[in-house]
Amino acid sequence: MSAARPLDAAPTGGVFPLQRLSAGLARLETGAAGLMAAATLAITAAAALARYFGAPLVWADEAAIATMTWGAFLGASALFATRGHMAMELLPDLLGPTGRRRLARLSDLIVLAAFAGLGWLLWRWFDLPGLIRAGSAEAMAQETFNFIWLEPTQTLGIRKIWIWLVLPLFTLGGTVHTLAHLAARS
What is the DSSP letter of 89? Predict the structure, then answer.
């Protein structure tokens, strides 16, 4: 709702532990997202060259999608730290400073609720307690028909769980950034 701010600057002027954690996490996420973008570019370029020389890399599309997915989710999480996501500014522009602060707080609470909902869905989907209770991914799949820990990718030959693990990281990162905004407003 407000303009992007530097990662280290707390909205109230001071820097609090949660803001420092959020800023550090955002730097880590931004760096990792940049590496994923570079990996996507390198994989795509290698695939184009290999295809040109008559030896296509069958795994390249799936690998590029995986790196792009990781990069997008990590970058999106980092944007929560700076409020860098696109926003409709019409209503905040019509309000005074108090109204803008209240609207920003309401927005943060809605985002936090969305992350809580996503976290709950991921907890149910990944079902780590069920995996531990079953003793193995195979036993869990047999008992619950939840194949998240076993399902392989088509061409890379790795389990899809390695790609899906970005979702809990996104949820955790976004939650930390949103809590940092809320704590700064307290």
Answer: -
Taking residue 171's Cβ as centre, other Cβ atoms within 10 Å add up to 22
CA–CA dist 184, 172 (Å, integer): 18
For the chain, the distance separating the N- and C-terminal CA atoms, rounded to the nearest angstrom, is 17
Buried b (16+ CB within 10 A) or exposed e, 10-42: bbeeeeeebbeebbebbeebbebbeebbebbee
User: Is the distance from CB of 103 to CB of 95 less than 8 angstroms?
Assistant: yes
pLDDT band at 10 (very low <50, low <70, confident <90, very high): very low
3-state secondary structure of 37: helix
> Domain residues of the chain, as ranges?
17-185
Is the distance from CB of 160 to CB of 154 less than 8 angstroms?
A: no
Percent of the chain surpassing pLDDT 70: 91
pLDDT value of position 94: 85
Q: Which two tokens stand for residue 121?
A: 């869905």
Q: Encoding tokens for residue 69?
A: 């997915």
Q: What pTM does this model have?
A: 0.84
Closest by CA to 71, choosing from 130, 107, 29, is 29
Token pair of 16 as six digits: 């609090």
Contact in structure between 19 and 184 (CB atoms under 8 Å) = yes
Which parts of the chain fold into alpha helices (H)? 17-52, 60-82, 90-94, 97-126, 128-134, 137-144, 161-164, 166-185
